[in-house]
Write a structure and sequence with these properties.
The chain is mainly alpha-helical. The protein is 49% helix and 10% strand. The chain is built from 6 helices and 2 strands. A two-stranded antiparallel sheet has the order 1-2. α1 runs antiparallel to α3, α3 packs across α4 and α3 crosses α5. The mean pLDDT is 85.
């Protein structure tokens, strides 16, 4: 069962349930495999006209490695069809990435309050 507090999301593929989790290590391995930084990968994934099945396969494989290190890249590719296709997989990937990086404003705690700054150079006169 996926632990939402750890940023995990369940992916149903056929009769089996897999756990997607995008840790920093998973994202680093995805960047290394695709030869692109995460912002470029995210931009490609968000545009259906630019998205490729090989990117979907690699992104899925990277997200599965935390919970299923035995899965090969080829097996991750085979899961795409049994999970309902690339668009369904990308919806789960997007959900898992959102869980990995929750909205900072929602979870942020206010910092210490500082008084107004005085004009000057910071040096005593």
């Amino acid at each position: 069962m996926a632990n939402q507090h750890k940023g995990e999301v369940e992916l149903q593929a056929g009769e089996k349930t897999y756990t997607l989790r995008y840790s920093i290590d998973a994202i680093c391995s995805m960047e290394a495999a695709l030869g692109k930084g995460f912002p470029a990968i995210a931009a490609e994934m968000s545009d259906i006209n630019k998205m490729s099945v090989s990117v979907v396969r690699q992104v899925l494989h990277s997200g599965l490695q935390e919970g299923h290190p035995e899965l090969t890249l080829k097996e991750a590719g085979e899961l795409i069809l049994s999970a309902g296709g690339a668009l369904k997989v990308m919806a789960k990937v997007t959900e898992a990435l959102g869980a990995a990086f929750p909205d900072a404003k929602k979870d942020a705690k206010p910092g210490p309050q500082q008084g107004p700054r005085r004009a000057g150079t910071g040096r005593p006169s």
